[in-house]
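The instructor's notes for this session suggest beginning with a concrete chain rather than abstract definitions. Hand out the sequence below and ask the class to guess, before any prediction is shown, which regions might be ordered.
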Amino acid sequence: MRALLQFVLVLALCAAGAAQAQKLPRLVLAGPPAAVSFPLIHMVESGALADLADKVEFVLWRDPDQLRLLALEGRADVLAMPTNVAANLYNRGAKVRLINVSTWGILWLVSRDPTLRQLSDLRGKEVAMPFRADMPDIVFDVVARAQGLDPKKDITLRYVATPLDAMQLLIARRVDHALLAEPAVSMALRKTRSFPVSVIAPDLYRSIDLQAEWGRVLKRPARMPQAGIAVTGALRAAPDTIARIHAAYRASLQWCQAEPVACGRMVAARIDMLDADAVTDAIAVSPLDAVPIAAAREELSFFYTTLFERNPALIGGRMPDAAFYGDVR
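After discussion, reveal the predicted structure:
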C-alpha cells in the first residue's frame, strides 16, 4: 500500500513538473481602446492567466491595420477584434481562431441635433466616420441602404482614423454628427457636460442606436455580434487552453460589470487616452456578454451573410466553413 502511495505521489509530481514545463514564458493580450478590451486588462491585472504563462501583458492596438499586423506577424497570442476581421483573416489562411463573441453592439450616432431618430434623418448632413471600410462604416452602410439611402451620395462621410478622432472633431465643433463606439460616446458626453439628464439643452445627444436600427430594418433582435476574442498560432490547436482563456475572459467581464467604478480606474490607468468615469458609463450601457463561438453561430452566420451580400471581400471572399465555429467548452 505504501509503495502504491509513493507511486501515485511520483506520478503527481511528474504531472506537475510537465505542466510547469509547458508553461509559456510570455502571453500577449491585445485589444483596442474599447469595451471589448476591459476584461483583457483585468485578466492581466488580476493574474488570471498566471498558470498559463510566466508573464502576461496587455498591448493596445489603435486601428484595424495595427490589429492585422499583430495577427499576421504573430505578435499577440490573444486578440480582441471585430468579427468581420476574424472571418476575413481566417478565410485568407491566417493563424487566427475566434473563440467567443463578447460585444453585441456599441455603436451610436452622437449629434447636436436632438430630433434625429433614424439614419434617414441624416440625409444631406455630414457625419464623422472612423475606420473606413471596417466595422463602423460597414454597419452604417448596411443600415442606411436598408432605409433607401446611398451613404456615398445622400450623406457626406468624413473619414477619420479612430472613434477618438471622430470624438475630438465633435467636441471641437468641427462636425455636428459622428458615429462613435463606446467608450468614445461616453467621453464625448462627459467632456461637453452633456451626460446628466438634468442638464438643460445639453451640447450633444446620444441620438441613434445603431444596434436598434440594425434590428429594426433587418427584422432582427436589436443587437449584432460586433467583436470578440481570438487566439493565434499554436494556441488554436490547444482546446484546454482555449477553454481556460475563454473562462478567464468571461469571469473578468463579469467583474467589470459588477465593479464598474473600479474597472474604470483600472482601464484609465492602462490606457491614458480613456477617462475613468467614461469607462464606468460605457459599461452601464454596453451589451457585453461572452458567448462561445459555437453558441453564437446563428447570429454570426446571419451577420456574415449580410456582409457577404454587400461585398464578399469584407469577410475574405467566402462564408466561413464549419471549422470556423469549433466548440469552446
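Then share the key points. The CA atoms of residues 57 and 236 lie 19 Å apart. The two ends are 38 Å apart (CA to CA).
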